[in-house]
Amino acid sequence: MNYSAATRTFQAPAIGMGILRNLSPLAARVGGLSVAVTSPSRSKPFVCLSTATNAKIKEAVQTDKAPAALGPYSQAVKANNMVFVSGVLGLVPETGEFLSDGIEDQTEQVLKNMGEILKASGCSYSSVVKTTIMLADLKDFRKMNGIYAKYFPSPAPARATYQVAALPLDARVEIECIAAL
After folding, report:
1. Side-chain-facing half-sphere of 86: CA atoms under 13 Å
2. DSSP string spanning 121-176?
3. What share of the chain is helix, strand, coil (3-state, %, to 5)?
4. Which residue among 67, 110, 136, 146 is least enclosed by CB atoms within 10 Å?
């Protein structure tokens, strides 16, 4: 069997399905090749082959143009051609303070900070596929939404919005996102 991963092509020997039916669940990794086989109780065995050309699984992203993480976590992590941006607050990077207590100012600063993290990750707002928004008060939804809409081109990312009991530093809004590289 021939398999192609991006620009690399390799040859793998054909595997007899009869052999796989007799195996219990199996997962193996040899070099850059991963193989997974389901249990024999399935009517049709399933085999999954994948390649990894880079042994480094994940990479932390850090920029001074956005506020530092408030705890033991990364501003973002790159893994499997995706960027996972941690929850971002509307702190001004130079001062570590909120510009104001207003939802509009905090949302604007959150999205500016997120843009800097995305840029440091090698992507942009148009690369974002999913956001999660946490609001201290769901009554701020309409005002937050007006600012948010200016940053994400069509098609807008998938999104969930929640009201939470409290946010770090008494923030009004926190947003996290996932982007494709």
Report:
1. 18
2. HT--GGGEEEEEEEES-GGGHHHHHHHHHTT-PSSPPEEEEEE-S--GGG-SEEEE
3. 25, 35, 45
4. 146
N- to C-terminal Cα distance for the chain?
29
Count of beta carbons in the 10 Å neighbourhood of residue 144: 24
pTM of the model: 0.71
Q: Which two tokens stand for residue 81?
A: 């051609």
User: In sequence order, which residues have a C-beta less than 8 Å from that of residue 8 and are 6 or more positions away?
Assistant: 51, 53
User: For residue 57, is pLDDT > 70?
Assistant: yes
The secondary element (H helix, E strand) that includes residue 119 is helix 103-121
Report the alpha-carbon distance of residue 90 to residue 175 in Å, rounded: 9
Which residue reads 């800097």 in tokens? Answer: 116
**139: which residues sit within 8 A by CB, 6+ positions away?**
none
